Amino acid sequence: TGKKLAQQARAVKEICMDAKSNLSHLCTERIIYENLPPHPFVVRMHSSFREYNNLYFVLDFMEGGDLFTFMRKTKCLNLADDALGIATEVLLGLEHLHEHRVVHRDIKPENILIGRDGQVRLADLGMARILDRETFCRTYCGSDSYIAPEVMRRDPYRFSVDFWQFGVLVAELYGGRSPFWRSSELRVGINENILTGTYRMPRAAPEAAKKLMNRLLRVDPEFRLGCIDSDFLFPNERTETSAGTREIKSGWD
User: Fold this and answer.
1) Among residues of the chain, what percentage have pLDDT more than 90?
2) pTM of the model
3) Suppose 39 and one of 14, 96, 197, 218 were both cysteines; which one would form an S-S bond, judging by CB atoms 3.0 to 4.6 Å apart?
4) What residues act catalytically?
């Protein structure tokens, strides 16, 4: 819901805290938002409050909605023309989280929001966790074909899952769907593709992007690309996302 607060639009996220709610997760999400320094590619929480059995987060209002809806609404098969800018902005937001010891664990188009200027921001820290040097996650979580193989195997994991999901996102930006998806396969087939690292490379992806995906979508997290500088994405190309000059071809005014 968009609200006008101090002459600036904000979004209010309402969370019903019923008996099934995981209160520790909600507290962790609020703590992360409250302690995370502002960043241009991560949605910011401005305040939070509780009323009866509902918890409310007051967040940045992103006029363009989420990336998943945008891709379906505009009937884009892929976002190849905008993939470089989107991927770079998501990566910079992801690096910001990791610098503050936060693992997101649910990177997907639904959790990437688009501003009126066409820039994107990482959102929804409901599955995020704060890790110290010796902490590992063990919870099975994630979304469909974005789940990392180590999570599927129930192995302990850390920041590597975010880079796996980032690799799937890059593939979807260029190909319009998960690289593990097959029209004739059931869910179990997709899971097998993830566990074995069997995927299709998007035809629209340039060679640099294909190399990046190959290094991100490695089943063994010890050999997966993890510490990425934004210039590594496409070393022979340039983007002006930080200056706010890129615009996604959108369906809104």
Assistant:
1) 43
2) 0.82
3) 96
4) 106
